[in-house]
Amino acid sequence: MKKLFLLMIAIAIYIPTAMAGDFLGLFPRHKGVKPVSNITYSQSCAECHFAYQPGLLPKRSWQKLMEPKQLEDHFGENAELPEKDRIAVLQFLLDNAADTTIRYKRSIKISRSLADDEAPLRITEVPYIKKKHEEIPRKMIQDNRQVRSLSYCNKCHTQAAKGVFDDDTVDIPNFPDWDDLID
Ligand code: HEC
Ligand code: HEC
User: Fold this and answer.
1) Which of 143, 156, 172 to mutate to test the pocket of ligand 2 (most atoms within 8 A of CB)?
2) pTM to 2 decimal places
3) Is the distance from the beta carbon of residue 156 to the nearest atom of ligand 2 less than 6 Å?
4) Residue 26, pLDDT score
5) How confident is the model at residue 27 (pLDDT cuts 50, 70, 90)?
6) d(CA 122, CA 119)
């Protein structure tokens, strides 16, 4: 009887604590990265590729990428913005960067795979992301007319716009059976 009583007390304490942890954001609750929620950002940065979620790179990377000089020559393109928009976009990126969240598992993994002084300008150069794709042959990426570069995440990750990158949501154009061809 006493044992049962103790067990009930334990449960009564445990459940609210676990729920409070959830509300306070103490545990990673989401598998992916946080979806984009800023109109200035989507309007400024989704013209040439989909709007990469801020949680795909750490703050120090966004800081570098968003410098005016850097935007002028953005991977060979001009991605300059009016100063007001540049500041707004940068702020949104910094507030939601990979190293600001403890709730999105994918961002945590990205962040952890980088040394403190590493600030890649590309998501595709983040060790965690690089490793996940190292087995995919050229013919499925560069030589695949409907993909062309690993940078176009959403060509293969059908839910990329929602921040979901699980391998069971991948569909490589022209390679419906990719899963049997890799590994
Ligand atoms: C005028 C076209 C254009 C605009 C506008 C643009 N980008 Fe890009 N972006 C590119 C190109 C081209 C690449 C390189 C793609 C490749 O290597 O295949 C790129 C690559 C990137 C990458 C690296 C992707 C990788 O390879 O991991 C990031 C991050 C990025 N852009 C962020 C932004 C942000 C933030 C903005 C808004 C300020 C922006 N881009 C606006 C053309 C653009
Ligand atoms: C050519 C198609 C293709 C492109 C483009 C691509 N991926 Fe992937 N990605 C894959 C495949 C295939 C896998 C699964 C690899 C495996 O299971 O061996 C994967 C795996 C992943 C994983 C791990 C998923 C898991 O369940 O473990 C993440 C995260 C990821 N990709 C993110 C990205 C991001 C971010 C980009 C863009 C910068 C991107 N991918 C571009 C095909 C692609």
Assistant:
1) 156
2) 0.90
3) yes
4) 62
5) low
6) 9
